[in-house]
Amino acid sequence: MRVHIILLAISTLMCSCIKEDALLSRGDKPGEQKTINLTIDGIDRSFIIYLPEGFNNADKMPLIFAIHGGSGTPDGMITIANFKPIADRDKVLLVYPAGIQKNWNDGRPTTPNQLGINDVSFFNKLSDYLIENYPVDEAKIYVTGISNGGFMSSRLACELSNRIAAIAVVAATMEATTIAPNCNPSLPVPTLYIHGTADPLVPFTGGQMTAGGTAGGMILSHFQVIDKWITINGCNSTPTITDLPDFSNDGTTIKRRVYSGGTNGSEVVSYVVLNGGHTWPQGYQYLSEAIIGKTSQDMNACEIAWAFFKKFKR
Fold first, then answer.
1. Which end of the chain offers a freer environment for a tag, N or C, measured as fewer CB atoms within 10 Å?
2. pTM of the model
3. How many Cα atoms occupy the beta-carbon half-sphere of 99 within 13 Å?
């Protein structure tokens, strides 16, 4: 009996060593985050890039641009919308870029707009840099953002449809006087919009923006931007409607509308967060409810965006 026990112990130890050796032989590196500074169009720009766990052994990977809101930063956006667990799990490159004076030229009279900053060119050339220097699958470049970053995402979908495979916009729509009338992308762009009905900074019903800074501007309502993309993408105008489970009991509920059947399989998806604020669902409550409203806990906006993105490629 003692001999059997000894042999079993040796066998278990050998199996353990084999497994450990196999794991080590893969040489998977841990996730790596770094800030990179570049000069683009003669202007000093910067971004945070996150290389997922095992990036050194991965094939070409999808890329997600996650764009901060007005007065925000790349670090702040990581806190609000942390895609890192998704990146590690599914091998995705993440890029959190920095706007000029913490803002983006989304078509409204933001500081970069007044300075004549061409942020569309910035994202186009940054994509070129990333494709050249990292294992980016250029057919799978996605864009998401909140607030000013969400408006910028809409603009990029309009003007870089040859490059962007899909967008997901939170707490934003589209600038109404210059961007929306001229949004005629050469290719359909699958789009997803998440907006709270009680957003105190970006009105769900559109119109003139008066709160939350000095940018202002006229914007489309949530359903106006949805209708805009239904037309652009050639989707069915009658959606499939689903009420998401209200498991959090946090005073918010969410209704999803999916407009399918678009050109090249494109879709338009609306998530209306009843009583939701200027927030990222299940993201960080970066200011008090009195200022920005409620953060719904009924869905994870990062997971929702990624599940949408990975259905599409350019």
1. N
2. 0.91
3. 33
